[in-house]
């Protein structure tokens, strides 16, 4: 069996497979490619041109085996069989449809680079490489997916990254055995530490500058072909509240915004359950005047505060989800309908109290303060069990629930790093970049929790001013 | 994931608890806030069992908010029940009120004169003990029946209970015409330490409640009244005269017209020095106060001499009042309301320990030396 | 890095967490009953004694790196006596957990959940504590590191608000009745420091056991400071006599606070956020140590199964007492047991260690 037959047999059933003979001068070539992946013009303009030019040696590399050839075809290349030389060549095809690099919508920042990752691993790597032209940036590409053979690239900076963590990540990646990798999310869920935790144990980002920042801290980036979301490991809880702007903007602004985010996250988590506990169990803890006001406002409400709160919070989540899937213009309509009509008329109908509407609104706004969407959704989900606890055991249940969440958080790990570090175990040198972002001179060292090989980040002695 | 079966087990264990929970759940609108309570002695003797007459002031917040106009619903209701214990009275009330009375927001307990004369400790026991009550609840003695104080219709505030408690707060901090110890916690501390207390007294008038000085409590029994001026003197002695009241010195000017110097007191301190001489307690009382001239009946342009003279006049007037009050307590009532006993416990412990049971008798004989110093610091924006 | 070991600050916080429990609510009352206005002096003195005892334990522990009393106890005391000691500790720990759970549940019932069955409150607390125990000693340490400083900070902030009601003069006279009442109050006061003996069990988990002594001393000293402060404040607000009549003076002085005009006018809800974690962490520490002993006695590698099996026992101990006074009685007996163990064990350990070391040197 010769090459052509073998290829044709393997690719049989794919109508987009093209295998055609080109006769150029006296040489005969067989060109094999997938129609959908290679532009017709490209073959005409480039390949045939080159083949026709007798002075041109093939700049393409050669292949040895048929599986190699098939793989090349499937990745959108051309396989050229020269009948004269009896050799298989591969020519890079163009025409794979990819999105242009553009500003990411989910991770918009006021200040900082605007380019975002796209669905191609090579484009994404180029975005990173361009910012770090140094051989120490290592990229380890492997194929994962029993059937899809997706390219997964592991990027790290040699000399900074901690080899123990790197080995662990490599081990986890190499043990992946799954039929297809659709998105970095698949990889994330395979390699994460705890499947039963609501909290994300890796972080994803669309911003190349952010990836670079993380690489420089000694973390590892995982880039999956076909996904614009690059994973970063290991992560800590405090990273949920950090956004790239914190570092680009001056430190006071960055710190203040971080504190606001953390406050918002705590409000989003406990405010509805605190409302339930105080209204249904401990009105004595509210100031007298406020208690009288709330009591008057709730006079006509037929439901216990627990049902009332669950009803409104669930409505809020529904509105949020509905707005997410709809086109942008429709999304605004949903906002108006949800916010005004439901809120207003629910109060007027006496189904919920106006105080609760305020509580729910504050909760909603606060929960959007958390920059990491997967972290925010975890907090929003945990709100419901807390509401159940507060609804059945009051403040006592609420405190037990918070303690249980805390117990879960401190036991969680991300690639050997404690999820709650650097807060605990105490590592004061890392606290400068946790809940606040200290001024630049204080960020002299890389995070100690990662045990990077090279600790120093900057040399302040070299700083000079002209005056 | 070794832990997972365990956590699932816990989830299973907790589930029934959560599903059947809510033993204590009472929605805020189903609770009936009690803002004030009045306790009287039951004078209708035909029922031997009932000793107390307990009146609770219940609030309907709906009628307060003004949104719902319910002609039949008034913001307050003062049901009365009687029984041998306060607790029984409270539970008896539940047979008449459709909602659950709630005492966490209780602001003031008013006790009628009759009951106060027999002792108030027993009737307060529930309020020390119950988890719904706080030590900060104000304790007030009413001249006449306590119940009547709850029925006043104050002109500016819809809730009499809140009105009364605000009144004591303001009166205590702005005018010093009320005793400094006003809460059941403070009374309990004094009483259980074996000291006497002065509690705020009120008199009910048509549409208002008037703060009428203090009630002298020997232990927990009412034995007499102090006027609001005497209370002011008492607070000079205690050094609790913190701010914002005036001392008036009445003098006559050249035209024989009465004229007054008014001082706005900004702070006062009293130091009590204790010693024992010949087996008798000797108390040296040093009162220092400072303040501004609030009103001056003597013409303008103050000089150092004028101010000094005014200070001396104030000192003199104050000293006379202090002496008068102490003499009254020593001779008429024969009890120590100034906390001198506590000072002896602190600084003359051996003596106090030997004589603590006969302290009031010793106090009658005690020699008290008084020194008053006042300072006028400022005279305002006009000379 | 990947291998978790307890750090020095973690030992400090662990000891603090184990000592400070629900007792902080009633401490001024129990001590005040015996020592009156001098309670704060007794508390300081017994704190110092506790520091001596804990430094002895840490000294012996640091001589056996990687080993706790479970391993070196039988070695120093001989197999039989060592076993008896461990069993005594086990019984004491279980009794202690049971009574702490019961007292916390009683306080919860009194102030938060009047109608809720006590069993439910107990199950709620035990499920959170057991969930934490399942994650092992390092997770417990991290948990304490988060929760204790926050709780202490909140408590101190709340206590600053009581200053308005205080009169420091109430603490006078100092030692007016001489030293006798102080001596009389000493055992009761010392009970409030029970908990530092867990050092015997957690020191082997340390990164550098040699640092154990210093960290443990800081932990006990922090407790001493907090206890003295709380007691002195209670005395200064309530006075020497009233403090003995109020069941939970610490809570009483905090319920006394009204911050006028603030959104949270009443701070007792905040106090709840403080003492429930205090109670839970004490339960966790003792329960963990009990399951550690039991698992080693049964020669098991893991403490998890045993910890779960101990839960019903703890539950039973917690629900058995009939009323509050009986709970006090039970807690007194377990405290006596602990007191005996703590007074006897550390000097014995030190002596035995010295003796063995000398014999080995001679041999």
What are the key terms here?
heterotrimer, A: 467 residues, alpha+beta, 5-stranded antiparallel sheet, 14 helices, 12 strands, 45% helix, elongated, C: 363 residues, mainly alpha, Amino acid/polyamine transporter I, 15 helices, 0% strand, globular, transmembrane (chain C), transport (chain C), germination (chain C)
The arrangement of helices and strands of chain B along the chain is HEEHEEHEEHHEHHHEEEHEEEHHHHE
Rg of chain B, please? 26 Å
Largest interface: A-C, 32 and 39 residues
Q: What is the domain tally of chain B?
A: 2
Distance between the termini of chain C: 40 Å
- Rg value of chain C: 20 Å
**What is the overall shape of chain C?**
globular
Could you give a short account of the major beta sheet of chain C? Answer: none
Strand content of chain B: 25-35%
Q: Say what the CATH topology of chain C is.
A: Amino acid/polyamine transporter I
Helical/strand content category of chain C = mainly alpha
Count of alpha/pi helices of chain C: 15
Number of strands of chain C: 0
CATH superfamily of chain C: Amino acid/polyamine transporter I
**Biggest sheet overview of chain B:** 10 strands, mixed
Question: Care to describe what's here?
Answer:
The complex is a heterotrimer of chains A (467), B (383) and C (363). Chain A is an alpha+beta fold and 467 residues long. Chain A has 3 domains: 3-91, no CATH class; 121-235, no CATH class; 250-414, no CATH class. Helices cover 45% and strands 13% of the residues of chain A. The mean pLDDT of chain B is 82. Chain B contains 13 helices and 14 strands. Chain B is globular. In chain B, strand 12 (258-277) and strand 13 form a beta hairpin. With 383 residues, chain B is α/β, with parallel strands linked by helices. In chain C, 55% of the residues are buried. The mean pLDDT of chain C is 87. Chain C is mainly α and 363 residues long. In chain C, 75% of the residues lie in helices and 0% in strands. Chain C has one domain (8-362): Amino acid/polyamine transporter I. Chains in contact: A-B, A-C, B-C. The A-C interface holds A 162, 164, 278, 281-282, 284-288, 393-397, 399-400, 403-404, 406-408, 410-411, 416, 418, 420, 423-426, 451 and C 1-2, 4, 7, 9-10, 108, 112-113, 116, 120-121, 124-125, 127-128, 131-132, 135-136, 139, 141-143, 145-147, 262-266, 268-269, 272-273, 276-277, 280. Chain B: It is found in: Membrane. Chain B: Residues 24-203 form the Spore germination protein N-terminal domain.
